[in-house]
Design brief:
alpha/beta; 165 residues; 3 helices; elongated
């Protein structure tokens, strides 16, 4: 093949790949918004957004419906998909979908890890509790000893000495 033909074919291929990359990236460029952003401006009406806030009033009978709150406003969300395991009232969620000016029809729903609280009766509450690792050990100074090493003998310098036997 002629060198000029190779250059033209390669150039066209690169342009096509860049066009594909640009169109797929543009489609997934939904903006993160809060209920306050949606309530105070019509800028996001009839667009795809990622609504972030606290889930309130979760109802999983049929399509999942709930409100997303941010302390100022709430916006209704409908999601016709599988409910995430950690979804419950009070958890921070991100619902991505089409906002029609009043309600978000979500295509994707995620629950932020370790953000928001499980209610006391939620089955995950006991599993996610972290033991208090700062209790009695927080007061301990690793350089202080009781004056005795592990063999029961007094230390000369005040540090523990370990018997390798």
């Amino acid at each position: 093949m002629d060198r000029n033909v190779k250059v033209v074919v390669g150039g066209v291929g690169i342009v096509v790949l860049l066009a594909i990359l640009a169109t797929t990236t543009m489609g997934s460029a939904a903006q993160f918004v809060t209920p306050t952003d949606l309530a105070e401006s019509d800028e996001h009406d009839d667009t795809v957004v990622k609504l972030e806030g606290q889930a309130v009033g979760v109802d999983d009978s049929g399509p999942i419906t709930f409100d997303v709150a941010d302390g100022n406003y709430t916006k209704s969300v409908t999601y016709d998909g599988e409910m995430p395991e950690t979804m419950s009232d009070g958890r921070v969620v991100v619902a991505e979908g089409h906002f029609d000016g009043d309600e978000l029809e979500a295509d994707d729903l995620t629950v932020r890890a370790h953000e928001g609280e499980h209610p006391e009766d939620h089955p995950e509450t006991e599993k996610n509790e972290t033991p208090d690792l700062h209790g009695a050990h927080a007061e301990t100074d690793l350089n202080e000893t009781d004056g005795e090493d592990d063999t029961g003998e007094d230390d000369e310098d005040g540090y523990d000495q370990y018997d390798e036997n």
